Amino acid sequence: MTPNSKLSLGLVLTASAGFVDAIAFLQLGGFFASFMSGNTTQLGVGLAGQPGVQGTVLVWFPAILIVLFFAGAFFGTLTVRACGRRGSLYVMASVVAILLLVGVLRREGALLVQPVLLLAAAMGAQNAAVQPIGAARLGVTYVTGTLFNAAADLACSLRGETPKWRWL
C-alpha cells in the first residue's frame, strides 16, 4: 500500500468512525462506538455514584463498549500481523461485514444496543487496518489510541514480537 493510499484509507476510516459515533451517540443517549474517551467519561460519571438502575447502566454499558473496542483492536492486530499484506484487507472486510450486519439488524427492527456493541468491536479492529504513516496515526484519539496501542502490543507480545509485558 502506498503512503497516499494509506492516507486516503485513513481519512475514510476516520470519517466512518465519526459517522458511526454520531449515530451511536444520538441513539444511545451519550455512548459511543469508537470514541473511547467519551465512554471513559461516562464510566467516570457512573462510578461517581449515580444511584439505582441509571447508575448501573452508566457503569456497565461504557465498560462493555471499552472492552469490546479493546477486543476488536486486539483481534484486528492479530489478523494484520498473522496474515501479512492481506491482513488489513481481511480486517476491513470484517468491519464492512459488521457494518452491513448492523444495518440489516436495524432494518429488521432489532434493538439498537446489540448492534452498537458489534460496532465497538469493529471500530477497534479498524484501527489495526491502517499502519502508521511515518509518525502519524490517523483516526486515533488519546484514550482510544491508548487502548488500541495496548491491544496491539498484547497481540504482538503473544506472537513473540515484543516484550511480554509491554502492553501494560
Automatic annotation (TrEMBL):
It comes from the Bacteria. Keywords: Membrane, Transmembrane, Transmembrane helix. Pfam families: DUF1275 (PF06912). The chain crosses the membrane at residues 57-80, 87-105. Signal peptide: none annotated. InterPro entries: DUF1275 (IPR010699). PANTHER family: SLR0142 PROTEIN, UPF0700 TRANSMEMBRANE PROTEIN YOAK. This is DUF1275 domain-containing protein. It comes from Brucella intermedia.
